[in-house]
Amino acid sequence: MALQLTPLVTPSCRALGYVGGLTLAAWFFAPSNIFSWHPTCMGIGFILVMTEGILRAIEFRFLEKADRVQAIRTHGYIQLLALIFILLGFFSIYLNKERQGKPHVTSTHAKVGAATGAVGLLALMAGAVSFRSFGLLSAFPERMHGRIKASHRMLGAATWTLSLAAIELGLQHPAADKGGSGSSWWAAWQAWCSCGCHRTQAARMPAAPFWRLPHEGDIGPGSRPGDAPKVISSEARSARHGSAAVFREGGG
């Protein structure tokens, strides 16, 4: 039922992504300052582009066949664009520290950022395996296909959530105190996160965790003691989980 609210929720979430990402970029960017490329590119990559990619992923769950495949491709292209900005942000802070002779990954912000990158890499790998057109999914047993796709969704959500924490920690860093306005930025970010979380609550997943939902081809228990296990079909899965049917795996 919750996902039926998506058409009402996604425009506001999308607007929050554009406002948050572009505002961070406009505030911090100074072409001649290599450090400024870090918050600028990270803000655009995570808050603007990745948010758009996640919203596209939510939207294509209602599509089927060729439309779904094309929507998945678009989702992948958007997330690759996010990756480009994130890599630019990473290399800018790396070069900045190298030039100043400072050690890497020492602050809490940097450690959370590194964890975000590691989880994001796993999400990228799971996404590449999940897309049938790449032919990688066939290397795994069919009973694992649904779980691999679910892991991609879970890791993607974790990446985006960790990025919010990393950005919040970064805004509390002395380097972000531009003109003595660091505390104002932190307060504005708190308001942005609160509004974003409130908006996305309406688009939350079904009651059962999505990584535990049975997928087509999964083995379920027999109807009576001693019966052979039954293969769960897509129809049975849809009937059992109602709105969770949007998680069917066709075309992905």
Automatic annotation (TrEMBL):
Coiled coil: none
Pfam family, one: Cytochrom_B561
Disordered: annotated segments: 216-252
Compartments (UniProt record): Membrane
Co-factor(s): heme b
GO cellular component terms listed in the entry, alphabetical order: membrane
CDD domains the UniProt entry points to: Cyt_b561_CYB561D2_like
Membrane topology reported for the UniProt record: Multi-pass membrane protein
GO molecular function, one term: metal ion binding
Gene3D superfamilies reported in the protein's UniProt record: 1.20.120.1770
Assigned keywords, A-Z: Electron transport, Heme, Iron, Membrane, Metal-binding, Transmembrane, Transmembrane helix, Transport
PANTHER family in the record: CYTOCHROME B561 DOMAIN-CONTAINING PROTEIN, OS05G0565100 PROTEIN
Protein's UniProt name: Cytochrome b-561-like protein
UniProt organism field: Tetraselmis sp. GSL018
Source lineage: Eukaryota, Viridiplantae, Chlorophyta, core chlorophytes, Chlorodendrophyceae
